[in-house]
Amino acid sequence: MARLTSLAEAISENVKDGDTVAMEGFTHLIPYAAGHEMIRQSKKDLFLIRMTPDILYDQLIGAGAARGIKFSWGGNPGVGSLHRFRDAVENQWPRPLEIEEHSHAAMANAYEAGAANLPFAILRGYIGADLPKVNPNIKQITCPFTGEILAAVPAIRPDVTIIHALRADRKGNVLLEGIVGVQKEAVLGAKRSIVTVEEIVDELAPPSPNSVVLPSWAITTVVEVPGGAFPSYAQGYYPRSNAFYIAWDEIARDRDSFQKWIEENVMKAGPQDFAKHAKKAA
Q1: Is a pLDDT exceeding 60 seen at residue 281?
Q2: How far is CA 65 from CA 52, 82, 165, 189, 265, in A?
């Protein structure tokens, strides 16, 4: 059953140097507070997985936490490049970065395969594409029933998955609603999982048709971190900070300004500093 604990304890106990770590959330509910705690604890040699790495992974890469990344799109949404990601690939700063690029469809199918405890995912994809030429983890397989040539990719089975959600009850059951990406599959396919939430309540009472409840037995640790998805948004709690995404382009463009920002806003801060962004909507 899920254990309720502090963010520092959750990261220390569940994220080990060298782990494969998935941190999901599609525009909505990106687990920034947890990522910052990983930087504060100087986690190293992580192989990061995320369908759409944006600012959070730019911060982790620039802080030297990552040895590699599996992804299907990378950028600062609506703004431009991820400068720390790009610097690592082009100039090996602060360290070389292994990259494994896939399509969105392949990543989603790979997460589903992981959640189902299957070794790989099969899809119709990559037809006429060049990614299979540079990614040895994209294979072809022949359907034994029709003879059709299909694409195959390894299942995603992270050592640890980290997500942010809206609410958890005191037993550790977790509620997701709004835009739901692959968070459910990422948690179910992982050996360990950390879920940060806006609040812990007595009853979840899922109110909407697309609500997803992750049961306590499928989760390792739950942590209450109000505001923990900022500058992304949490439906019903706070909006996305478009201004921060725009500002990040200038902050991350230069190594010195990036390191200064990390020192002031991550190393000298804590999960409690996210709470000022958690103004629950009526």
Answers
A1: no
A2: 18, 16, 24, 23, 17
